[in-house]
Structure formats: C-alpha cells, structure tokens
Fold this sequence. Notes:
The protein contains 15 helices and eight strands. With about 450 residues, the chain is of the alpha/beta class. The protein has two domains: about 75-395, Rossmann fold (3-Layer(aba) Sandwich); about 405-440, no CATH class. A six-stranded parallel β-sheet has the order 2-1-3-4-8-7, sandwiched between helices. Helix 3 packs across helix 4. The chain is globular, with a radius of gyration of 25 Å. The protein starts with a helix and ends in a 14-residue tail after the last helix. It binds thiamine diphosphate and magnesium ion. Thiamine diphosphate (TPP) binds near residues 206 and 238. It comes from Lottia gigantea. Its EC number is 1.2.4.4. Belongs to the BCKDHA family. Its cofactor is thiamine diphosphate. Pfam families: E1_dh.
Amino acid sequence: MSVMQRHFFQVYVKSKGLQTCHLINRRVFHRLSANLYSQNPPTSKFDERPEFPGSKSEFISKLKFIDPDKVDGIPVYRALGRDGKILEDSEDPKLDSETVIKMYKDMTLLNTMDRILYESQRQGRISFYMTNYGEEGTHIGSAAALDQKDMVFGQYREAGVLMWRGFTLDQFMDQCYGNENDIGKGRQMPVHYGSKEMNFMTISSPLATQMPQAAGAAYAYKRAKNGLCVICYFGEGAASEGDAHAAFNFAAVLDCPVIFFCRNNGYAISTPVKDQYRGDGIASRGIGYGMPTVRVDGNDVFAVYNAVKSARDMCVAQNRPVLIEAMTYRIGHHSTSDDSSAYRSVDEVSYWDKQDNPISRLRNYMTNNNFWDEEKEKAWKLKARKLVMKSFAEAENRKRPNPEEMFNDVYDILPKHLEEQKNEMKAHVKQYKENYPLEHYDKLF
Length: 445
Ligand SMILES: Cc1ncc(C[n+]2csc(CCOP(=O)(O)OP(=O)(O)O)c2C)c(N)n1
Ligand SMILES: [Mg+2]
C-alpha cells in the first residue's frame, strides 16, 4: 500500500465507522508478524532493515521457523447468535423489516425450489440437479450487500444470489428443463444459469474457470472507473485449482476491485476439508496474497451481509481485492450424481440441519422482533410451494428448443463444416423421425 492509499484507508475506515478488527489487512498482518519476532529483537549489529525487493519485515539473528500449528487460527466473525439475538449492538446491520422478510422469503423459496427440482431429477424428469441446502445465508447475505450492477461470477451453488436479484422461478425452471424459454436455449446442463440482465456470468462446469475471469473483469472495471465491483464465488475445493491462485495473485498485484467469496462448506464432493488442505482454511491464503481478509459464520446472514458490505466499500474506494471465507455446511448431497451417506454420518448432517441452520437462525431473529409468527410461516410455506409447483408444471409442458439451435450463437456466420453437419442432422432425423420425440420440440421441419 502506498502512503497515500494507507492514509486514505485510515480516513475512510474512520469515516465509515468500520470495524478494522474484523478485517485483517496487510498492515495488521505485518504488525502481527513483527510481534512474532519480538522475542528476538535485532542486535545493533543487525539494526537495519532488509532491503530485498520482495521482503517487508526485519532481520532476526536466531533461526526460527514459523510453525502454523502454533499460530492462532483466524477467528470467525458472527453478528447474530443461534437464538436470533444480535451479539453486539454495533454489528446490527439495522435492516428494515421489509428487507429482512425478503431475505427470509428468498432463503425459504430457494429451499422449496430445491426440493421440487431434486425430486424431479429422481423421477427422471430432468437430467441433473444440485441443491443449496445449508448455504442459503451465504447467498442471500452477500447478494443483499451488493449493488445490482456489480458483476457476479458464480461456481454453481449460488442460485440464491440470482433469486435475490430477481431471476424468476420460471427462469430457473426453464433452464433446468432446457426448454424453448431457457435463456441458454437448452444447450447447458441444469443449474448452469446465466443472465446478462442480472449481471450474472453463465456458470462453467470446470472448477475455478470463473476465478481468473473475475479478476480480469474487475481489472476492466477499475480501468472504466465505473464505481462497481465484481464478486467471485468459489468452493474450498475449487480453491485448490491452479486457476484460483492465478486469480488471487493477479487481482492482488493489479489492485482489482473483486470480492473473492469462498463458500467453505466442508466438502468437495466426497473429499472433506481435512484431505483438501493442511493450512488454516482459505482465509490464510488471502493474507499470503496481500488481500484484506475476513472469515465469517456463513450461517449468519447478517455477518455475511456486514462483511460483504464492508468489502464492497473497500474494493470500490481503494481498488483492491478482498477475500471472504464464509464457513458453512453442505447439507444436501453434492449433486444428484452423489450419495453422501457413503462418506459422512447422518448425525453429522443432522447437526447442521437442526442445530446450526441459517434459516432457523434468521427466523428466530424475526420472531424475536415481531416480524414473523407461526401463522405467517404457515401461509408463506403454502404460497411458496404453490408458486414453485406452478412454474414447474409450466416449464415441463413447454416445448424444447429447435434442435438447429445447437449450431447457433458460436460463430457470427455459420462455417461451412457446421452447415454440413446441420443439414446431415436434419436429413437423418427426417429419415428416422419415428425414433425421435419430435412432438416435444420446436418445429424442426
Ligand atoms: C477442473 C475440474 N475438476 C473436477 C471437477 C469435478 N468436480 C465438480 S464439483 C467438484 C467439487 C468442488 O467442491 P467445492 O469447490 O468445495 O464446491 P462445493 O461443491 O462444495 O460447493 C469436483 C471435484 C470439475 N468440475 N472440474
Ligand atoms: Mg465445498
């Protein structure tokens, strides 16, 4: 950080009343590492600072390794207790009841949509699905703290972010059914949503694809001076990809306004975190790359909201990346291609479902504040199910896109070899039409 940047940051933090203690920035880390060596103060002989271009600390004259097992772990920031009570008045985001109710309705609607679409895959009606159970707080808390124009790069388990932005149940269902109303024209697997209108980049299956893309987009935003930031969601498993490290380093060195938001949900399919990494989670890497970093309780929607709001302010005011590690738990199976009972116990899952659930925590808060009661809960559950079932039935009954669409939208003018393939496909289907369910498709001939 330059002297100017540092000064600006201090004034900015003061003016916003931000809690610097929750955000570990480079400056604080340097102080911490200096303390580590305070038992070995440099003698006068070594009373000089290292001038190596890549180091920022001091000389020591006794050999000492930093033992990661002896350094305190990075703390987890919470705003709301499990009983739904604000822990510190200063951390109350003071959201109005309308916003809190929208948060709750989106979290529960996402749950209902997940249940129906998961079941629909089990019945063979769609090809694939991934649920978001247990991680609703990370989606809604972060989405609510952003500007709608901030660009989102997701992994695949962030449907709640789109829901908050206004992607409709019909749009979710149309994509999962790959029907003629699907924005992607049926050319992607279910849950690979994308929406230009919602500033949500289309999901890519290969892990970490979105991470260098997000760093690049943030660099473009910095150059455009548009006052916006980018948020990049990724799992703790994806963080092991080389692309994750390239993204962190480019963003940090080039001072790009991007929030790297890690959903640490304990598993990467069947790989538990203890087999994924040896260090202190993903947050410790943020410090290593020189990014302000915070670890939050991802099942506390207000903690996530506060962290993303402060991170966004920092990104935009200082043009620099911030890393947030949201600790949560994947309650559902990884996807419909997984059976998690093979690698984890029912008791473990039940603990997170019943004892530490983001939805019940927010509901406790709402009940404590008289925003919500049993009657409202019952009525909303019924309405949510009806809304989901209506969109589901409509999406299922819609025709599938014209098969010709698979040749469109890559090239401006269709190249000759693809033109030939298209004609071959049409001739083949025409010849064997009794073997194809053409009545379910938009007219091919
Ligand atoms: C490059 C690549 N390698 C492997 C996979 C297969 N794969 C899909 S999801 C996944 C686990 C990712 O775990 P995590 O990043 O923690 O996200 P989560 O599913 O827990 O939300 C793996 C290994 C893939 N899609 N891409
Ligand atoms: Mg994971």
